[in-house]
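Write out the 3D structure for:
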Amino acid sequence: MPAALITGANKGLGYATAERLHELGHTVYVGARDVERGERAAAALGVRFVQLDVTDDASVSAALATIESAEGQLDILVNNAGVLGLTGVDGPTALRVFDTNVVGIVRVTEAALPLLRKSPNPHVVTVSSSMGSFWAVTNPDRPEFNLSAALYSASKSAATMLTVQYAKSEPGVRFNAVEPGYTATDMMAAIGGGRPPAESAKIIVRLATLGADGPTGTLQDETGVLNW
C-alpha cells in the first residue's frame, strides 16, 4: 500500500486528509507535535502515529527514520502544519510564523526526499493559501482584498514559491500547493464560519493521488489552477 505522511494531522484539515487517504487504502502516518493528541487521533482513525514537530530538526529526522524503517519509501507527503500568527507584527512573531509555515516545509521535505525518490509515483502537497497570492490580495473582486494577515500571507507566498522551486529541482516528484478553501478549523476559530474540514480535504487528496503525468509546480483550489 502507498505510504503517506501528513504533518499537523491530529485535528482539522490534516485529520480529515488522513481519514480520506486511509479510506482509499493508503498506509497513513499522522504527524503531530503533541504525542498524546497525535496518538489519540491515530487510534481514532486506525492509522499510525509519528511524533513530528516541524520546527525541530531532530524530531523531523526521527519521524522519517521511523517511516523508512517500516515502509522503505514514502509516496505522499502533505505539508499541512501551520500557524496563523495574528498576535502582532514583530520580530519574534515573524520568526515563529516563518519557522513553522516556511522553514518547516523545508525541514520535512528535505528529510522526506530520499524516501519519495524511491516511490514510483511520489507527490508532495503543501497547504498554502490564496492569501499569499499577489493576484488575489490586489483584486477588489476577491475576498482576500479586504483581509489583512501580513505574516501569514507572506509565509504562504513563500510556501507556494517553495513548491514551484522544488518542482523544478525534483522533476521526478509531483509538487503542488493548494488553497483548501475557507475551513472551520481551530486555527480559524477566532474568525468563525467555514465549511467542514472533510470538504476541504478533497482537493488535497486529489492532488496527492494524481497520476504520474499530473501537473506539478502549481497552486490550485477546487476549481483548478489559481493565479498568484
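Residues 3-225 form a domain with the Rossmann fold fold (CATH 3.40.50.720).
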